[in-house]
Amino acid sequence: MLDRLVKKGTPSRAEVSDAVLAARAECVMLNKGPYLEQGIRVLTEVLRRMQDHQYKKTPKMRPLKVWS
User: Fold this and answer.
1) Quick one: how far is CA 35 from the chain centroid?
2) Which secondary structure element, helix H or strand E, spans residue 55, and what is its range?
3) Which terms does the record give in the GO molecular function aspect (predicted)?
4) Mind listing the pLDDT tens digit for each residue in 55-68?
């Protein structure tokens, strides 16, 4: 997860997309590298934002209305 960010300091678009999808996973792991702290900050922010966004996208059934 965020391998290029942790090793080179700049994430690729695909890595950010993968981090967004990781919000649905039970755990997320980062590889070690010189920019590990930056990777943790970015991942934390992405997961925080997606938590609120995914909550809004939770499918809900509309109330059942029966003729009276």
Assistant:
1) 19
2) helix 36-56
3) catalytic activity
4) 556 666 667 777 76
